[in-house]
Amino acid sequence: MRFDDIGYWSEIKLDIVREYAAAYSKILTARHDPALHHVYIDGFSGAGLHKTKDTGEFVLGSPLNALNVKPPFREHFLIDLDGDKIAHLRTLVGYRADVHLLHGDCNQVLQTDVFPKVRFEDYRRGLCLLDPYGLHLNWNVLRRAGEMRTIDLFLNFPMMDMNRNVLWRDPMGAATADQARMTAFWGDESWRDIVYRPSRQLNILGESEVEKAGNKQIADAFRQRLTDVAGFKQVLPPMPMRNSKGLVVYYLFFACQKIIAGKIVRHIFRKHSTGIG
Prior knowledge:
- The protein has 277 residues and is of the alpha/beta class.
- It is built from 10 helices and 13 strands.
- The protein has a single domain (4-158, 220-276), classed as Vaccinia Virus protein VP39 (Rossmann fold), CATH 3.40.50.
- It has helices at 8-29, 62-67, 83-93, 106-114, 139-148, 159-165, 176-186, 191-195, 215-228, 259-272, and strands spanning 4-6, 37-42, 49-52, 58-60, 75-80, 99-103, 124-130, 151-157, 196-202, 208-212, 234-235, 239-242, 248-256.
């Protein structure tokens, strides 16, 4: 089994999700009027373990962290496109009635097999982690999660993959397939107007140069989409996760429907912000 190597910024992300999952499960377990059935959802669950880049030691992945939460979630839906990773996760988890291991593309599996089990009218609620390896997530999943009014969402916004493969200074230089991935992730072509704007500078032909927006501008625009288009009532300013060189690898978003959830995560973000530069 080849495990994912992760940097310290990803270890911080795991701690953030784990801390909120514990608070979330405690609050929802205490609800009795009405009682709520709360579940954990992981769209890119991986093999259950990661190796740290610094030491090569194994650390628990998000699915095992969620399974260790007390009081426990009522159910766990763990999804991955890689069958070997699902198979390894099975060796760690075993066969449990409260754990559903799903081999497939979360862009389809979430909408057809998981989200229908977390309906508002059924007194169901869910904490969902979407941590794609890059631009491998479809906007329809995010929009559906917001429309349901039952999902608290952590999202990895893959800034480095965007900059490497799509958001070049020359907008015509990126591969057509990579631009299509960006459109699928963003939900429409409006990202082009956000990223590329006419500059005040003129080229030798007297034409306006194209100016590329900064990382924060792009992330802020996506935050607005999660509110205005997807329908989340609260979307916190995303937390930039930086590597040892100070470069933003990705932004960690949190979106929810309840004020208390936002307050809890805002506190957790502040607590861990010093660890990422």
